[in-house]
Amino acid sequence: MQTHLADFIRDSDTGREAERILRSCTHCGFCLATCPTYQELGDELDSPRGRIYLVKQVLEGAEPGEVTQRHLDRCLSCRACESTCPSGVQYARLADIGREVIEGRVPRRRDRLLRWFLCRVAVRRHLFAGLLTLARMARPLVPARLRHGLPPVAPRTRWPDPPASSQERVVLLEGCVQPAMTPATHPETARLLGEAGIETVRVPAAGCCGALAQHLGHAEQARRQARQNIDAWWPQIEAGAAAVVANASGCALQLADYGRLLTNDPAYAEKARKISKITRDPVELLEADAARVKAREGFPRRIAFHAPCTLRHGRGLHGRIETLLHRAGFELTPVGEPHSCCGSAGSYSLLQPELADRLRRRKLDNIEPAGPELIATANVGCQTHLGAASQVPVRHWVELVKIC
Q1: 199: which strand partners?
Q2: How many domains is the chain built from?
Q3: Which end of the chain is flanked by fewer CB atoms within 10 Å, N or C?
Q4: Is the pTM of the predicted complex or chain greater than 0.90?
């Protein structure tokens, strides 16, 4: 694809990156077959190929408007197109570049307050937890699109004691919304890793991974959040922590991008590359003990596993959790269209509720006919989004297994 970038971006690092991505696209259209929004809407501009043309026009100097903004907003950043693309086009990165440019040039006529809340309030862990408690108490007064996403109150899970002896130590990303939305996930992760002889270290000063800001067009905020986390974790890394563990696959994907995000920051570039290199999903630390992983009592054995897009397409870990669950004694029911997004996609279910609901219904229609008694997943957004409409419980997979 020939490009002639405008002066405002041509000689910048971002412009050179965008030009490289644009030139790699051969217009083949393979991406259309796996793009959830194109499948739902049938509009070429709601496909990766169509959005690539829209971003190209803006970067070449065309004035963006609400039409361009709307079609980019509808993108889930699920990366299914990247798994399909024979040319290796880094579409999600190009979409982020387009969002950042357009966010500064096209005024928001709707969702401005909600976007502010997501970028400034939801990313603050304790403030979000307090507001979630208030929202539950005043549920009838909460706007409908937010009310439907409120998870039920879950019993608090006690954090386990550190293992008596440990072969290694890891840092856990606690993030922003997850401790309040799915409070069992972090303690159960620490419990499971402890059974494998891995000590989990909590670092309260670390916060949001930056993914929310990144995908809403606020790249500088995402970089600030990355620096904050690196500063918080670095003493533990220097003291020998072997990995940064993120049990939300969306957060893990963002951490894996820190090296690129801060590549031009001389004070943080090397540290950021180190964080990206040692970021791990829990399954990556447990596979060595796969023979000792067993199903926990109290959970049904017939389950479905929904692989989040960030795990499947972003991290490339498709099949590894499923294999572990199968070896642990679970029967995994078939899932139709396993490559397709459930519609959660971080803040997408709040900002694009109608499309998100359609995609969720399509996902559940591909899961429920096989009759699973529980749905397991690996990302807080998928867990809460599917759980709000599923006829069976939806849980994080770390809750279901133990190491004997």
Answers
A1: 169
A2: 4
A3: C
A4: yes
